[in-house]
Design goal:
By secondary structure, this protein is α+β, with helices and mostly antiparallel strands. It contains five helices and 19 strands. The protein is elongated.
Length: 329
């Protein structure tokens, strides 16, 4: 029985597709974890070979729902929101991890589940050289769904339909896996991931200091207006710029620099923030809202966008048109 396994990783692609040689799965937005089950005891290991067993004590009953003495599963530890969707923001609340390496208090009241989607080893037999379709067929036969364990089902051939369903339900995306793929402990094109991204126009109210070799600025500081006309901070976007657009944006920011904070309340940032007059509108691509925002709760510091990317400026939009959605007002 292997004692260490590096998870097989998927290559990102831009668009969903159909194909009879592919199996399609929901992409769970949580912590990837290899589950080692040996003589009724569980050991959970992250993709970076960090021990997760003690971090999620409620998963210790997982071996009770596997019809095997020894097994190795691949899956995802997830926290579900009120709509039953996997939420990475809730996982961050549970673990206390924050972007940029910051730590907060652990919220043990956020429950987690383990979604198993692959079988790597079973009672003396290594399944990694078997085709994916056979591994999943065997996996579902030994799982008794209950307690902390769930089976992550797959859908045959119709990736576009699954992608649209995932998009409608506000999920992170889907995975496409060759049905005859063997398990390789590396990133491969036998598995593909297609993420769902959202677009939004935001007001630029500042910028942060650059870091390392980056020139001009680190990220633009984004905001949206609430019903009271207050500019609420919703995050920073540092990616999406090339050298040309970085220099062009820098010129526009310097022209609008001010000492007055245009935002309502303080702005959370890891580096020093410089304020600009809220005159520029940026089109932003993002993954999701944070948990507090998704539940309609808005603190003074505001809801936050996860993984925002700068796409370009919108000179056809008035900054006052950039408002928080009805869920947050």
């Amino acid at each position: 029985m292997p004692t260490a396994i590096s998870p097989m990783l998927a290559t990102p692609v831009d668009k969903p597709f159909d194909g009879p040689e592919w199996l399609f799965e929901i992409k769970w937005d949580g912590y990837r974890a290899i589950a080692f089950i040996e003589n009724g005891k569980l050991r959970l290991v992250s993709r970076n070979q960090n021990e997760l067993t003690q971090r999620f004590p409620e998963l210790k009953d997982l071996p009770n729902f596997i019809k095997a003495k020894n097994a190795i599963l691949d899956g995802e530890v997830v926290a579900l929101d009120e709509q039953g969707r996997a939420s990475f923001s809730l996982m961050q609340q549970r673990t206390g991890f924050r972007p940029g390496g910051k730590r907060a208090a652990i919220n043990a009241d956020v429950p987690v589940l383990y979604y198993a989607f692959d079988l790597l080893y079973l009672d003396g037999y290594d399944w990694r050289k078997m085709p994916l379709e056979e591994r999943k067929r065997k996996l579902v036969s030994i799982i008794e769904t209950g307690g902390s364990l769930r089976y992550s089902d797959h859908y045959e051939a119709h990736g576009k339909a699954l992608f649209e369903m995932a998009k409608a339900k506000g999920l992170e995306g889907i995975l496409a896996k060759k049905r005859d793929s063997i398990y390789q402990e590396r990133r491969t094109t036998e598995w593909l991931k297609i993420k769902i991204r959202h677009h939004l126009e935001c007001v630029i109210g500042g910028y942060t200091e650059p870091e390392g070799s980056r020139a001009h600025f680190g990220s633009i500081v984004l905001g949206l207006y609430d019903k009271q006309g207050r500019l609420i901070h919703v995050g920073q976007a540092g990616s999406g710029f090339d050298q040309k657009s970085l220099a062009e944006m820098w010129t526009l920011l310097k022209q609008r620099e001010t000492k007055k904070n245009p935002f309502y309340g303080e702005v959370e940032a890891l580096r020093k923030v410089y304020w600009v007059k809220p005159e520029l509108v940026a089109e932003i691509e993002y993954a999701e809202w944070t948990a507090s925002a998704a539940s309609g709760k808005i603190a003074q510091s505001g809801p936050k966008l996860r993984a925002p990317v700068f796409l370009g400026l919108r000179d056809d939009k008035d900054p006052k048109e950039c408002v928080l959605g009805e869920d947050f007002l």
